[in-house]
């Protein structure tokens, strides 16, 4: 049995693509023959510092090489296109729902089970609940795959925030309008404060920026998990801003490990950033506690935990023993989350009806 992950690749770093690579890496640690199945010619390993093998064939010719016991896993978008290409491919198929927002907006009009997918992987509890309750995969066939954040080049906290040069790192491509507004407002009060952009960087460059400066402004938005802020926390960087999963419950952000505000509330984020800067200047005990809590939070996301979560997936899928799983603690959506998801699904359905 081989596990082949459909991989479109991209020219800029992506948290979802990084998680696919890390998943393949951990499966191979378990002795599973796991590889990336490219769509066309793709080579972007230098962006992620995670080198894993590609299949010697791509998606367009995969039907000539894939056999019935192979597992082919695709992402949460463009499912109908994937299924049309693989319609004559006799194998087991699954979905890796890394980002529920994308899964909802690109809903194909049928549930995952109706489309013929055997099981689903998800990157956070909200994605897991969404995959079952809204996207129609039975809970015993849904698996949480934790992310590996606390690893090199991340996971090295280094100096405390107070020993670093005061500057704020941020990602200009994440809600750029909010980032500009926050920078402008904060610079009115602190005109000499540097804002250091993180854009089109390798993982090594990102980690170096995180460990060099004490504060990271998070303008994460519509995230499946929210890698950047947690990567910053693993480097001992204080995070200010958005968890990025509203209205869904964020997987790791809480009042103890960051100066968090509700997503897209740029004025509130500005006030919190000003508070964090003042706390840094005062060497406050609160910031020290947030620093410690952030590191502890990031330690919950490492290779050993990711490998362990995949161990259950491999065991269950290999034996087709879904009915034997204990799903008593399976996550549930809140009424507000369910309402948002259903509204998003209705919008996607309306788009489908209008399409030729």
UniProtKB/TrEMBL annotation:
Coiled coil, from the record: none
Xref: Pfam families: Glycos_transf_1 (PF00534)
GO molecular function, one term: glycosyltransferase activity
Record-linked InterPro entries: Glyco_trans_1 (IPR001296)
Domain Glycosyl transferase family, residue spans: 202-282
Name this protein carries in UniProt: Glycosyl transferase family 1 domain-containing protein
Originating species: Lamprobacter modestohalophilus
């Amino acid at each position: 049995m081989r596990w082949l992950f459909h991989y479109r690749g991209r020219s800029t770093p992506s948290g979802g693509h990084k998680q696919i690579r890390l998943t393949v890496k951990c499966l191979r640690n378990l002795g599973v023959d796991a590889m990336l199945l490219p769509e066309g010619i793709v080579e972007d390993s230098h962006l992620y510092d995670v080198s894993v093998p590609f299949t010697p064939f791509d998606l367009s010719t995969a039907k000539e090489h894939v056999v019935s016991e192979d597992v082919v896993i695709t992402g949460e978008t463009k499912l109908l296109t994937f299924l049309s290409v693989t319609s004559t491919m006799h194998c087991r198929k699954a979905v890796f729902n890394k980002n529920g927002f994308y899964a909802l907006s690109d809903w194909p009009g049928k549930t995952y089970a109706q489309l013929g997918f055997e099981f689903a992987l998800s990157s956070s509890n909200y994605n897991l609940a969404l995959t079952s309750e809204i996207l129609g995969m039975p809970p015993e066939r849904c698996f949480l795959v934790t992310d590996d954040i606390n690893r090199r080049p991340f996971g090295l906290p280094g100096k405390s925030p107070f020993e670093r040069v005061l500057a704020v790192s941020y990602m200009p491509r994440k809600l750029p309008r909010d980032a500009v507004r926050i920078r402008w407002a904060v610079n009115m009060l602190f005109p000499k404060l540097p804002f250091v952009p993180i854009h089109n960087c390798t993982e090594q460059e990102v980690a170096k920026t995180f460990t060099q400066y004490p504060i990271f402004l998070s303008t994460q938005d519509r995230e499946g998990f929210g890698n950047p802020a947690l990567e910053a926390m693993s480097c001992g960087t204080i995070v200010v801003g958005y968890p990025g999963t509203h209205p869904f419950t964020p997987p790791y952000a809480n009042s103890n490990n960051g100066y968090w505000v509700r997503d897209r509330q740029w004025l509130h984020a500005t006030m919190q950033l000003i508070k964090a800067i003042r706390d840094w200047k005062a060497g406050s005990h609160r910031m020290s506690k947030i620093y410690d809590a952030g590191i502890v939070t990031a330690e919950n996301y490492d290779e050993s935990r990711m490998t362990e979560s995949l161990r259950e997936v491999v065991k269950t899928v290999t034996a087709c023993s879904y009915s034997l799983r204990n799903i008593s603690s399976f996550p549930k959506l809140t009424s507000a989350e369910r309402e948002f998801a259903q509204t998003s699904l209705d919008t996607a359905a309306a788009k489908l009806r209008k399409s030729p």
